[in-house]
């Protein structure tokens, strides 16, 4: 799975500072991959002596919100009722925690329950990330995550950013995650390298800070 490859690129090969985060956990499939990858990387001699990584998760645990903005309501996924209020719901905070603690100590699994507008800015002020997986589907949710990450300077040099639904909505530049990233680039002008597409609708890049 490319999510695992990307996390290894940041943790093991890049030795990038910071922790790992997932925005939008749903049933926890990719969440488990991230937890297992963090644990596996820590057995390497390359990471010995480095601070252990914590896995941060952000989810409403109520499924998807209602689409309100045209960048979301015009998505075919919304119009066909695939993305609707309550869809992609998680089995619950404790169930998601139990998945991660199969691989990581419980104190290194941090979960934030609630809408992103309620939780993102409650994180520790000096928190940095080496790898982030943005799997919140909507333009509005993705824009909130990107604003938080760039406004508060959360991305370390070499951080891998993964967008799970970048090409959903027929790859339109006007809709969804792709639109949110275009606007983020226009506003913050990040220096990044395009790492290409992975999976069916997913895209990733690496952030440069120096």
Description:
With 210 residues, the protein is α/β, with parallel strands linked by helices. The protein has one domain (2-208): Rossmann fold (3-Layer(aba) Sandwich), CATH 3.40.50.150. Helices cover 34% and strands 21% of the residues. The chain has eight helices and seven strands. Strands 3-2-1-4-5-7-6 form a seven-stranded mixed β-sheet, sandwiched between helices. The longest helix has 13 residues, at 29-41. The radius of gyration is 16 Å and the shape is globular. The mean pLDDT is 96.
Characteristic terms for this protein:
single chain, Rossmann fold, 34% helix, 21% strand, 7-stranded mixed beta sheet, 210 residues, alpha/beta, 8 helices
Number of strands: 7
Return residue spans where pLDDT drops below 50 for at least 5 consecutive residues.
none
User: Per CATH, which architecture?
Assistant: 3-Layer(aba) Sandwich
The largest β sheet comes out as:
7 strands, mixed
- What is the count of structural domains? 1
Name the CATH class.
Alpha Beta
| Percent of residues in beta strands | 15-25%
Helix-strand pattern: HEHEHHHEHEHEHEE
Quote the average pLDDT: 96
Helix content range: 25-40%
Topology-level CATH name: Rossmann fold
**Strand arrangement across the biggest beta sheet:** 3-2-1-4-5-7-6
Give Rg in angstroms: 16 Å
Structural class: alpha/beta
Q: What count of helical segments does DSSP give?
A: 8
Quick one: CATH superfamily?
A: Vaccinia Virus protein VP39
Query: What is the end-to-end distance?
Result: 29 Å
Which of globular, elongated, flat, extended, rod-shaped describes the shape?
Answer: globular
